[in-house]
Design brief:
The structure is a single chain. The protein contains 5 helices and no strands. By secondary structure, it is mainly α. The longest helix is centred in the middle third of the chain and has 22 residues, at about 45-65. The protein is globular and about 45 Å long. The model is unreliable at about 1-5 (pLDDT under 50).
């Protein structure tokens, strides 16, 4: 009797965002796709959206958890008070911030994806 893997080859081949370069590449695809949004949305563009969604959801959970109260918010009221943007932003705009930060700070491309996202969104006094 032979056992086969329950995971399909397509699932095993799915790209992951681990490094700043992975995030920069995926967000570059999203920013480019936003200029001409013809379906289907490229897979890397979706990975950028998923990563950004997870990043901001993590901040929200950290802020609201009793052990992390006040993380990213000096006053403790707004979990996003220290993020480097004002007003609502689309995924396309956030992706452009990632790309721009990666272009300006290439040393972040070979580190963790989190370091690039953190630099793009948290480099705002008095939070930095």
């Amino acid at each position: 009797m032979y056992l086969t893997s329950a995971v399909s080859p397509a699932a095993e081949a799915r790209a992951r965002i681990e490094t700043g370069r992975d995030l920069h590449t995926a967000c570059s695809v999203l920013a480019e796709h936003a200029l001409n949004p013809v379906p289907p949305t490229p897979a890397k563009a979706r990975y950028c959206r998923q990563y950004l969604g997870g990043y901001f959801e993590s901040l929200r959970v950290l802020h609201n958890d009793h052990d992390g109260k006040g993380v990213y918010a000096p006053a403790g009221d707004d979990p996003y008070a220290c993020l480097n943007f004002s007003g609502p932003r689309s995924f396309d705009q956030l992706a452009r911030s990632i790309v721009r930060t990666g272009d300006w700070h290439p040393e972040l491309l070979d580190g963790d994806a989190y370091a690039l996202a953190h630099k793009a969104f948290s480099d705002n006094p008095p939070c930095s």
